[in-house]
Specification:
elongated; 3 helices; 104 residues; 8% strand; 2 strands; single chain; two-stranded antiparallel ribbon
Length: 104
């Protein structure tokens, strides 16, 4: 039952050997409580029964590179934003060519 998150409701095996874990949800969806949260807790408990294989060993060198990418991306966006605003100010204040008015 859905209100017993640490208990598997039903296990079955298909004809091709796949295991099926079934959740029995007997609660009314009209009742005023967090039904979705209860189902999420049950699903998380079910996923704890599945033992996933390790696909690869942790790569600390690659992790360091991947962790710096958001920082580099953020600074790149900031520089491009400053250049864009600077270009708009240059066209409006120095060249006075009406570029800003055409963009608006």
């Amino acid at each position: 039952m859905v209100d017993e998150p640490n208990k598997v409701d039903q296990v079955s095996v298909t004809s091709d050997g796949a295991y099926v874990l079934t959740i029995q949800d007997h609660w009314d969806w009209e009742v005023d409580f967090d039904h979705v949260q209860v189902l999420e807790d049950k699903l998380n408990a079910y996923l704890g029964f599945i033992d996933l294989p390790k696909l690869m060993e942790p790569n600390t060198d690659l992790a360091g590179v991947v962790q710096t990418l958001p920082t580099i991306g953020g600074w790149t966006i900031l520089v491009l934003l400053v250049l864009h605003v600077g270009g708009a100010i240059y066209h409006q204040a120095i060249r006075r060519d009406g570029t800003l008015l055409r963009m608006i």
